Description:
The protein is an all-alpha fold. The protein has helices at 2-22, 27-41, 47-58, 64-107, 111-140, 152-166, 171-185. Helix content is 80%, strand content 0%.
Amino acid sequence: MWTTMLAKLWHLFIAFGTATLLGYGGGPAIIPIYEHQVVNKYGWMDTAEFGRSLAFGNALPGPIATKLAAYIGYKVAGWPGSMVALVAVVMPTALMMIALAGVMIKLEHNPYIKGMIRGIQPVIFVMMAMLAYDFAKYAFGQTDGSGPLTFLPFIIACVFFVMVQYLQLNAVWGIVMALVVGAFFLRGS
């Protein structure tokens, strides 16, 4: 009994810790690695359940990586599993960030470090743009192409952009609006 639970906790720590250490580019970039670990390697969920968890997690505030880890850890081994998965996600990067911050503070005026930071910025931009492009294909391609709802996801995106960027409204209101509109008008798509 205890050995089974310890094995589950160890597998959770290895799965999420490995994914965290191998995933560069933040939470969204790590999702495919999580999916591989959770669905293919350990079989804790199937692809559809993982997709539903991802969609639900994205509707909640906070980083997606920690929300998914907490949920999957809980599903696999209850509260202890949730805690172990969270520690595996947060601890490696937190320790590396603390170490890197110490080095960066000492070398912040070094021209090579400044050049490295300037050099990586376009790469990070392209990674985020690629992620946005891939997600846009998913977000706007979900309707079946019939009727007036074909452009509704695009309209939601445009209204959200105007609300947040130009009207300076809190993004929470746009998220609430999108959830309500989706609940009533995008149920069947």
